[in-house]
Amino acid sequence: MFELSTQGQEFVKKELQRYETVESAIIPSLYQVQKENDGWVSEEAIGYLSDFMGIPAARINEVFHFYTMFNKKPVGKYHVQVCCNVACAMAGTREMTKTFLDEYGVKEGEVTEDGRFTFTKVECLGACDKAPMMQINEDYHENLTPESARQLLKELK
Amino acid sequence: MEVKLLSEHYGDDNFKTLEGYKVKGGYEVLPKALKMKPEEIIAEVKASGLRGRGGAGFPTGVKWGFLPNNGETRYLLCNADEGEPCTFKDRMMMEKAPHQLIEGMIISAFAINSPKSYIYIRGEYTYAAKVVEKAIKEAYDAGYLGKNILGSGFDHDMDIYRGAGAYICGEETGMISSLEGKKGQPKLKPPFPAVQGYLKKPTIVNNVETLAAVKYIIRDGADSYKKHGTEKSAGTKLFSVAGDVNKPGNYEVPLGYPLLDLINNECGGIKEGRALKAAIPGGTSAPIITAEEIEKATLDYECLAEMGTMLGSGSIVVMDDTRCMVDMMKVISHFYHHESCGQCTPCREGTGWLHKLVSSVIDGTASVSDIDLLCEVANKMKGRTICALSDAAALPVLGIVPKFREEFEFFIKEGYSKVKGRANA
Ligand SMILES: Cc1cc2nc3c(=O)[nH]c(=O)nc-3n(C[C@H](O)[C@H](O)[C@H](O)COP(=O)(O)O)c2cc1C
Ligand code: SF4
Ligand code: FES
């Protein structure tokens, strides 16, 4: 059974008060759930949130499915999001992603066997002057080289 | 030459704190503004010629003038969604100079008589959101936000709202829907947000850079601000430059500045001494221009419009002669296909077709007639949808295909890129 931590519950309660309408609290609450549920949001968690917030599950689902930052299935401990938009693609990120996938033996969006990684190609993250770049969980890693990127992944346990 | 109003103190790490900001004259314009009449501020912004820095370039003072005088609560929304590919100026401002944005917003809110504002920050910008949230708190503690600001009798509350990954939430009505806790789908205009926006109340949506510029217009006066730039494109503008230049980054130059000078001087020229081939002048929605065109291009709204492209968000991607235009178009088309919200058939289907057709050129399954089909599809996507994303997806195609047609033909006939060394990525 999914349940938010006490701190998480307090957070959602505050968010429900924070904006002019309670529905505006859906996005921040989904972030909180994702944070407490190993980086993704399950159907069960939506049900929990619906009860807790007093908002129909269908309404929460509508928001949940619209936004790409909410993960619909389990992700690795490190969610590696490689920017493959123009500036980063020019700097070789598509090739770089391919080497990651080959090396770790997964497809895009899958979790590696050891549970460490999920690789996703994403659109521009607004750090194009420091291309090639990728985001691992919340952190940006910029001005990568194929070697520095590989090394970085190796060090993530 | 750079002219730094907005970016003057980006190099000062302390500028992001209230203390550091105040050392550099921070919150000195606010008391002056609060002593003016709101109409005077609006008149000053109108006179300055400031045009929206988020993409469409609409005159800011004129937009503010559209608010109805019906006694309804008015909202101010700062668009910090910055989703236009290769734009990174708003992120940098939030991270380096959050108080400058906040001061600009309080002045703007006072001008339009709004008790509440939000800064809608794209979800990926976690760090920027933290910096801005902290700055807002500092501003509250110092009495620049909240009740009876600096004894003026003006009350204003400000908060942030984080998006969650959807380019379409940068479109103002999509952003409003998102802030209301709905899917971020755009709505048909009119009614424009100024008349019916957030919670159906009159709402002004402005870009980060636009709102920050208001502070400098009030500080220096419209006449002084207008001295920068050209007659129709007033002021300075932040340009995000990326791609094949030696020194990519954000540069603030007066509007009307020659693009080639920006590339060669501020950005240190093309990497590894290679030849300039093309540039996207205003975000990927802006049609590409060739090296020849770049020589004549000045960075202002008029010149770029005359060239069939646009200033857009002010992000410039520079490409050297090793870049394959078919490949570039594939990347761009993928983006719009991914980001279409799907409400309108021409956009939903059209973006899919564009991506599929350009992919088929690279896969070797296209025939030469598909090149015309690409343009045909793009033409049908223009001007018939709820929001401008459909046009934004179509326009780059209608620029790149005719200008580099021989690269598309070569790829189809030979099965590989005309540009040496470029594989089908
Ligand atoms: C698909 C689409 C995406 C947009 N994305 C942004 C954005 O990320 N940031 C922004 O300021 N404006 C964006 N805009 C423009 C906004 O709709 C709006 O015109 C702008 O925020 C108004 O502010 P301004 O007048 O200060 O430029 C976008 C428009 C469209 C059609
Ligand atoms: S044009 Fe595209 S993105 Fe805009 S509302 Fe229609 S389907 Fe959605
Ligand atoms: S293109 Fe990768 S961060 Fe912008």
Helix tally of chain B equals 18
What is the element string of chain A, with H for helices and E for strands? HHHHEHHEEEH
Largest sheet of chain A: 4 strands, mixed
Please state roughly what percent of the residues of chain A sit in beta strands, choosing from under 5%, 5-15%, 15-25%, 25-35%, 35-45% or over 45%: 5-15%
Largest sheet of chain B: 5 strands, mixed
- The SS-based structural class of chain A is alpha+beta
> What are the low-pLDDT stretches of chain A, counting only 5+ consecutive residues below 50?
none
Q: For the largest sheet of chain A, list the strands in their spatial order.
A: 2-1-3-4
The total beta strand count of chain A reads: 4
Given helix and strand content, the structural type of chain B is alpha/beta
Strand order, biggest sheet of chain B?
6-5-11-8-9
| Beta content of chain B | 5-15%
**Oligomer kind:** heterodimer
Mean pLDDT of chain B: 97
Structure description:
- The complex is a heterodimer of chains A (157) and B (425).
- Chain A is of the alpha+beta class and 157 residues long.
- Chain A contains 7 helices and 4 strands.
- In chain A, strands 2-1-3-4 form a 4-stranded mixed sheet, covered by helices on one side.
- Chain B is of the alpha/beta class.
- Chain B contains 18 helices and 11 strands.
- Chain B has a 5-stranded mixed sheet with strand order 6-5-11-8-9, sandwiched between helices.
- The interface between A and B is large, with 40 and 54 residues.
- The site of iron/sulfur cluster has 14 residues of chain B, from α15 and α17.
